[in-house]
Design goal:
Largest sheet: 4 strands, antiparallel
Number of strands: 7
Distance between the termini: 33 Å
Helix content: under 10%
Length: about 110
């Protein structure tokens, strides 16, 4: 659940990263709420430009549960792109999830 009330149920929430130039990411380090489950997803350029929010058109290239401090998620098969999505699909109940810092390495 993301918020209060019956309309607060949804499968997750995401943060889109946009790079200045196309890059092939190798890993993503995230500092955030311990216990939150995240997926790193590639976003096709056309979808990013449309901004439709079609999660089914993205591809999971890495995932992991955030720990205390920085958590590094290795990416597999990430295409060269200007866009990545960090998708929080499971909250660290009963606490809300937060992302404080993100570092992407090639």
């Amino acid at each position: 659940q993301f918020g209060d009330g019956p309309m607060a149920l949804k499968p997750g929430v995401g943060v889109t990263l946009t790079f200045r130039v196309d890059a092939t990411p190798g890993s993503v380090a995230i500092t955030g709420s311990p216990g939150a489950m995240v997926q790193i997803r590639s976003i096709p350029a056309a979808l990013a430009e449309e901004g439709t929010g079609d999660l089914g058109a993205t591809t999971v290239v890495g995932e992991g549960r955030l720990g205390t401090g920085e958590t590094t998620i290795e990416l597999t098969g990430a295409p060269k792109s200007r866009h990545l999505l960090i998708w929080v699909g499971e909250l660290p109940m009963p606490q809300p999830a937060s992302i404080a810092e993100v570092t992407v390495q090639r």
